[in-house]
Amino acid sequence: MSSKVPVKEKISYGIAGLGQNMTITFVNTYLMVFVYGYMNLSAKGLAALTAIMFAAKIWDAINDPVMGGIIDKVHFRNAKLRPFILISILPVTLFTILLFAIPAGLPEAGRLAIFGIAYILWDAAYTVCDVPYWGLTSTMTPDTEERTKLISVARTFGNVGLGVITLVGVSLARWFSKGDSTTAAGWAIAATVVSVIGMGLFSLSYFMTKERNFVKEKETSFKDLLKALKVNRPLQIILIGSVVGFGRTLIQVSGSTVALVTFGDEGKFTLMGAAVLVSMICSTVVTPFILKKVGKKKLMIWSSLIAAAIYLAMYFIPLTEFYVILAGLFLTGFSLGFFMVLQTAMVADSVDYVEVKTGERNEGGCFAAMTFSGKLMNALSTLAFMVIMLIVHYEQGTEITYTMRKGAYFAVTVIPAISCALGTIPFFFYPLTDEEARRNSEFLSSRSDNA
Q1: From the CB of residue 182, how many other CB atoms can be counted at a distance below 10 Å?
Q2: To which H or E segment does residue 45 belong?
Q3: Which residues pair with 79 in a beta bridge?
Q4: Residue 402: HSE in the Cβ half-sphere, 13 Å Cα cutoff
Q5: In a domain, 429, yes or no
Q6: Shared domain check, 316 and 180
Q7: Among residues 185, 219, 253, which one ends one of the domains?
Q8: pTM of the entire structure?
């Protein structure tokens, strides 16, 4: 039996990733602006919501291995992963809609209860769709090169989905509001359209793919994750530096809310998101060429320090100078792109490092730890922004003061500046040079060839 995956199937798998990213990007990018601009919550309500969302995001950081264990124990006829994908489609769609369609007539406690339950269930349903989707790469083919191609196709299509929703999400909500301003109903309809189309496309990963490789592969558990951390000093430093530098993700988490509160128009997030997205994509393209001249450690440290300086300088730009602020966001996007590439590459180097030192290769545990750190960064960014908004006493229905506007802006400038600067400190102690990483890779490659 051929291990090649048909082109049609690869494209279907990629389009499914596009649809999935449309849905997750809509929730991750615009839920905060809906909460602050359209749920009509008091300061106490926002405080309760802060606790709910932070707890849910911490759970999100730890539940992937739990889902992996469930997949490992549940058996379906003639398939291992695709049935989970089918099961998840309707819940993800419905809970995405519900998050943006909280009944306005309910008391605040009722709205908070519905939102909290919907958010936790949405997160659980999304995990049910996400873990099997990426796991399909191992069951669609036993060939590692084909798996790499599948992942590349999925990432490419996924980035298209992310870009589209970042650029048109607000416009979509405003268009469905059928007026001069965006309404809660507009957001609800936009969420419905995006989730139905997105998860409809995602269903292709069930209907248009085939599982061919049923060799049982060990799921990555918390034990694997902790073991990977225990013996891997480079990985420890990468993850500590990444988590401390969580502020670099604040613009992604709260940018649309800042556009509404600070600049008075959530529609301006289209330009803000585009500024970051364009430079981020450019930097991911040029990073391999820069690494020929500058080592990973040095690029990580200097790009973060430069970003910290830019973030800090941005805070002192008058809020009326929106296009100057856009230029600053554009420059910070380069650092974000560098970070994304460097973090993955450095984790991969750490896998080789430990295998050379101990003879054991724990790829799954190392990359599971990286995923965990990414979700923890997202949780900390959400918490930081919501706490700042509580400090400046923001609540819907009151006049937005200069303090509120500046507070929201502080959250996406000064906090990232401090975070990026502090996040470089662990990397000064990163022990693995590029030359050593190269020697480790060559040693393992030659050993594999001689085996």
Answers
A1: 25
A2: helix 43-73
A3: 76
A4: 3
A5: yes
A6: no
A7: 219
A8: 0.83
Structural domain range at position 397: 221-444
- Which of these, 313, 305, 298, 307, lies nearest to 331 by C-alpha position? 307
Q: How far apart are CA 157 and CA 350, in angstroms?
A: 28
Q: Is 30 helix (H, G, I), strand (E, B) or coil?
A: helix
d(CA 237, CA 136): 31
Q: Show the tokens assigned to 422.
A: 């502090």
Task: Answer whether residue 450 is part of any domain.
Answer: no
User: In this structure, are 200 and 294 located in the same domain?
Assistant: no
Pairwise CA distance, residues 109 & 33, whole Å: 20
Candidates 154, 149, 140; CA nearest to 202 is 154
Question: The CATH number of the domain where 280 resides is what?
Answer: 1.20.1250.20
Which CA distances in Å does 151 have to 28, 148, 157, 176, 291? 22, 5, 10, 35, 23
Q: Which of 174, 195, 219 is the last residue of a domain?
A: 219
Q: CA 441, CA 450: separation in Å to the nearest integer?
A: 14
Length of the chain: 451
- Yes or no: say if 177 and 185 are a contact pair by the CB < 8 Å rule: yes
Buried b / exposed e across 242-272, counting CB within 10 Å, b at 16+?
bbbbbbbbbbbbbbbbbbbbbbeebbbbbbb
Q: What is the pLDDT along the chain (451 residues), one digit of tens a residue?
A: 457 889 999 999 999 999 999 999 999 999 999 998 899 888 899 999 999 989 888 888 777 667 666 766 777 777 778 898 999 999 999 999 999 999 988 999 999 999 999 999 998 899 888 878 887 877 788 776 787 788 878 888 988 999 999 999 999 999 999 877 889 999 999 999 999 999 999 999 999 998 876 555 555 556 666 766 778 899 999 999 999 999 999 998 899 999 999 999 888 999 999 999 899 888 888 888 898 899 999 999 999 999 999 999 999 999 999 999 999 999 999 999 899 889 888 888 888 888 888 887 776 667 777 878 888 999 999 999 999 999 999 987 778 999 999 999 999 999 999 999 999 999 999 999 989 988 988 887 777 666 5
Q: What's the first-to-final CA gap in the chain, in angstroms? A: 25
The span from the CA of 23 to the CA of 379, in Å, is 19
- Residue in 305, 338, 346 with CA at minimum distance from that of residue 434: 346
